[in-house]
């Protein structure tokens, strides 16, 4: 749901993860800062920033691919911590 002030939503890593396994092309476009029309054009040409799954006339985008493209961990645990060095 967009903020009450009419501005586009802020896509945090947690908010993207909360989308589930896949999302629609319009939502993925918003995450990447693309217009709906541009997103559909890129998807049709096979040039969307991540893999696009097509089911009939519907496009679905894997959320893990979005996170990977944005260099975000797929889970909220984050990257593994570096091992500590005991002295």
Automatic annotation (TrEMBL):
Domain Helix-turn-helix stretches: 27-68
Write down the superkingdom of origin. Answer: Bacteria
Give a single Pfam family match.
HTH_17
Tell me what this protein is called. Helix-turn-helix domain-containing protein
The organism named in the record is Micromonospora carbonacea
The organism's lineage is:
Bacteria, Bacillati, Actinomycetota, Actinomycetes, Micromonosporales
